[in-house]
Amino acid sequence: MYYVSTRNKGMKKLAAEAIAQGLSRDGGLFTPEVFPKLSPNALETMREMSYQQRAVYVMKPFLDDFTVSELTAYAKRAYGDNKFDVKEVAPVRQVDDTTYCLELWHGPTCAFKDMALQMLPHLLTGSLSKNAEDKTACILVATSGDTGKAALEGFRDVDKTRILVFYPKDGVSDIQELQMLTQQGENVGICAVEGNFDDAQSGVKRLFSDEKLRDVLAERGYFFSSANSINWGRVLPQIVYYVSAYCDLLRDEKIQRGEKVNVCVPTGNFGDILAAYYAREMGVPIGKLICASNQNKVLTDFIRTGIYDRNRTFYNTISPSMDILISSNLERMIFEFAERSDGEVRSYMTQLANQGRYEVSDSVRARFQQNFAAGFCDDAQTKETIAKLWNENHYLVDPHSAVAFHVLEEYRRESGDETPTIVVSTASPFKFCADVLEALGEKEIAQGTAVIDQLTEKTGVPAPAPLAALKHFKPRDAKVTAKEAMETAVLDFLK
Known about the structure:
495 residues, Rossmann fold, 2 domains, five-stranded parallel β-sheet, 22 helices
């Protein structure tokens, strides 16, 4: 299996090379040359498998330079009993007759990023070994909230790696920031950026393409790699949980073999919903892909119009992990819908870099509209949805998941489509205690980690152990950098 750059199909890499490198040198994203198909009986075969077994089954065709025994060992370490608080790893909960919630927040950092970032370190270190790489990988991460902690935890004290996370100052929740600042490990670094997530993400991409900086770091014994979803090693494990969710519904006789389900995903960077599309390409009977945005609705506008325009007001919302105006993984989807025209993709990405906008061709726009639906909601609607789900279904969700539930309700009302739907729940509500409590009618909100106990007292729902334990850790001093000085932060980290 070879991987090609979205901006240069002639650049081919084996899986281990693509994962180790993270981002193509031309700025493109590595994508499989072809997508393997599940056998006709594959979903039935996986019905009774554990999540770990399903992960190996799904990932192996994409990773033919890895052995089954290697992937089995990785899956055991990534998704073992000591890492997730439920046996199922990614359980599917029924909310009503036609709505199911895929809970992806039962891992060590209580967010869906754990599903990939518990696996990626093993894929990366395995890739480095296969490539006979003697330098240390410096993992650069830009986070809008959840990726940072999940990456820090995943790479904590992993041999031959160092990891530096950039996050937007004042652009994550208090709990998200505390999670990062209390991270343990000798190889980890955290730095706030004066600006928003797009500033942090653009800065990281700029560092990746800085040849002079790469040369300096090479002399020090380092090379750059990525733990963001621009790395194929992040996207691949995400495909697994869509396959697994469908198998669970089959096993529990909630759906019949071959029956289609829709998927509704709250997304900012487009990676999570992209993985659902890839699962469908493999053969999972997924119907409509419903893209849910918050007030930063650049993806909703794009899917509806074919115009991607980041030149707009940026909003800090109560669903901060979706506060994004540059959705990196959209490039992979455009690559597919442009019939893999790398020249067309390069043109769009150049326009985005230079003018902050582009308009796709009529054919690309039509393919997006055929496959995707899109909607958005503001903070007030998000809070209303949190309250409604709790009052009517006794189901507690975080703001990001609430965005998806709201958009799904609107989609069903407007389309009449009552297809059984999997809503992706991306984070524990306890990562956003203050906003959830306000949504439930609380007027006085506790300070610091006491807010976690307050939400438990209000709802009777116990907090996940990793969040309940935050009160016992002393945060490290927060480092802050201007977006123009991120290179200095890297050089200081890698002295």
